[in-house]
């Protein structure tokens, strides 16, 4: 199996942490536990890292303005974003294979977007952002580009313009629910001290890719509180392996029974990010929604923050996005926006994956105070656990 980062050096742990570095930080054996079953208790193991993480080297996260999805503007601002982070030569080398994970939740029948907007202008990653990121990955030397998502149906790609974006940059679209272009799935271990899942079955492309780029929409989430680059990895897993009721078409196994979801789901997010770490996060906050993650929930309204946020550590990048939404990224259940679940960013920090404390992060470009916009959490009308 190929190493995700191969032989070139990685930045310190708080900047970007590979799975191998994580095991070293946590004081665990390189081999981890034997891979027996795939899943532990319903609610997940307790958090017991063997050593405190070192955040002496500060993470960097950049914010840039982008008022509209005009392709030339998005390309220019995405380039400025990555340049402010020192470029991406430490993420992509000439000849690399790169997977770009988008967020196309809900499928084409997920429901109408807020009035006066479209699905990609509100609750889905916009193809203009993905096209710009892919162009910059090509410029950095990527040889093979894949735009990936475990879509509800292939029409999710075509209906929302991702086939055109892929054609423009010479990328290949991959439905992660399937094995294509391989004949079987890869088994991706989480490593020692896993929470809920000891390993995941993934499309083998995620094992072969030299880098994984997470390009989510900046928004709240009904269960997890927020959904940014880390939560975006829920869409790496084929749903058929995680159905509580076979054939239900949902990853209900990630949630578990309702009385444990608030503890279980954030731990699954951390397990996923250890099994396949994010190497670069670019968060689409040009236009988004307020109040939840999609039209199947209540009180969804359109929002126009007009920003892109990027970084090489997903924990810190997500923390800045959460702060730009007016929330405390280190808040804990039941404080907003974490009304129904524990804060997976707090879990990730305590496990050494990166810091979600703003005092540990250098914010470049647009000052946070100028980028901040007040969002409402996903109040909904369901009982809180």
Compact summary:
With 385 residues, the protein is an alpha/beta fold. It contains twelve helices and 14 strands.
Plain-language structure description:
The structure is a single chain. By secondary structure, this protein is an alpha/beta fold. The protein has helices at residues 19-25, 71-84, 119-122, 127-139, 155-159, 162-169, 205-208, 252-255, 261-275, 314-324, 344-350, 368-371, and strands at 59-65, 97-102, 144-149, 172-175, 185-189, 199-203, 211-215, 219-221, 225-227, 280-285, 288-290, 301-303, 307-311, 361-365. It is built from twelve helices and 14 strands. Helix 2 (71-84) packs across helix 4 (127-139). It is globular. The termini are far apart.
Supply the key terms.
8-stranded mixed sheet, two-stranded antiparallel sheet, 385 residues, alpha/beta
Task: Give the secondary structure arrangement, pairings included.
Elements: H1 19-25, E1 59-65, H2 71-84, E2 97-102, H3 119-122, H4 127-139, E3 144-149, H5 155-159, H6 162-169, E4 172-175, E5 185-189, E6 199-203, H7 205-208, E7 211-215, E8 219-221, E9 225-227, H8 252-255, H9 261-275, E10 280-285, E11 288-290, E12 301-303, E13 307-311, H10 314-324, H11 344-350, E14 361-365, H12 368-371
Parallel strand pairs: 1-14, 2-3, 2-7, 3-4, 7-10
Antiparallel strand pairs: 1-13, 5-6, 8-9, 10-13, 11-12
